[in-house]
């Protein structure tokens, strides 16, 4: 027996793990990113990418959201649950030791089997007991080790999911903040044009009263004033909704951030260009790629668990304790008892359960490998699309800036000519509407360019993970 136990212990030390070993898959990505306007290739992506947007208030909001957002807190809780399950799985690699004790008073039948109390069923008896029990599975084929490997991969998956939630919340906070500043800028444009329109309305009313023009000009000028005034409540409602959206992201009640966000500020103006980093780094930055890799790792380890189920499982057990009919004798050497020895479990016939489970795990591993390729390819497409959108919006914004400059000159000229009676008010009206349109488009373009910048950072993985 001693030799058998020694052999089992040595065998457990040199035991093998059946099933395939996980190898990090190679991400099919380009050697370099195509450099477009507003980007820099082969440079390190900044971890705190939101700071590159140049707005301290936005930086503070993102960091507050990372601490208070309810989705992030839920994701952190799920990560802690996965770590607890990993601890449970790891405990199976160590012997389990338990203590037990008991007291029993009873009486056996005089007509039944022998009464171990020696009373032959004529009187009740007491039984006192205490013991230490130990058990340990000799992991000859890696059944336990592969299970722990699966638990480790699950922790990595959950960590990547949390990183993805952090990245998503940071990007959503930045996007809503940029939209808020864009709406406030449009409010400022509308109010500025409203003031100009009201001045034109007064001018046309004066000219009409002096008989210089007709009521057509006064009606047109009044219509323009009413049109601009009608846009103000809509923009104000958009501002309120965006403040509420940011409040929700920070785990606050509606309008909780109104005091600090109602005052207009400029649309965040990002740094001149975006550092793209190397394509090969994308797999370490993007949480979705990290998650799919961990899922592939877990599926690979599950094959080892399924294969180990085909082999015998050996466990070692031991027990040492005391038992007596009199409590005063409990603990004496004569009342001691002990046992030890191995136990063997061998699956002889399972009706195809083991074979079916193994085939299922292999198919799941193949699916996880395909999913990894899909996620990597999707990430490549997202980066390329985000680069194109950002570069195009920068060019669009530059063209709109020139359009606003020219429309501003045109409006000034048209007003002067109208005052001199050299043109109709309809020309002033058309030019002012064109200016209002291009100014609004310029604000929308500045907003879109900043949001496209956020999308590009998000596509790149938002810098190295776990910075918040």
Folded structure, characterized:
The protein is of the alpha+beta class. The chain is built from ten helices and six strands. The strands form two sheets. A four-stranded antiparallel β-sheet has the order 2-3-5-6. It is elongated. The chain starts with a helix and ends in a 9-residue tail after the last helix.
Layout: helices, strands, pairs:
Elements: H1 2-13, E1 39-41, H2 56-68, H3 70-91, E2 96-106, E3 125-138, H4 143-209, H5 215-249, H6 258-261, E4 274-277, H7 282-285, H8 287-308, E5 313-324, E6 336-345, H9 353-419, H10 425-459
Parallel strand pairs: 1-4
Antiparallel strand pairs: 2-3, 3-5, 5-6
Helix pairs in contact: 2-4, 3-4, 4-5, 4-8, 4-10, 5-10, 8-9, 9-10
Number of strands: 6
Q: What gap, in angstroms, lies between the N and C termini?
A: 57 Å
| Average predicted confidence as pLDDT | 88
- Rg, alpha carbons: 38 Å
- Reading the helices and strands in chain order gives HEHHEEHHHEHHEEHH
Please state how the strands of the largest beta sheet are arranged side by side.
Answer: 2-3-5-6
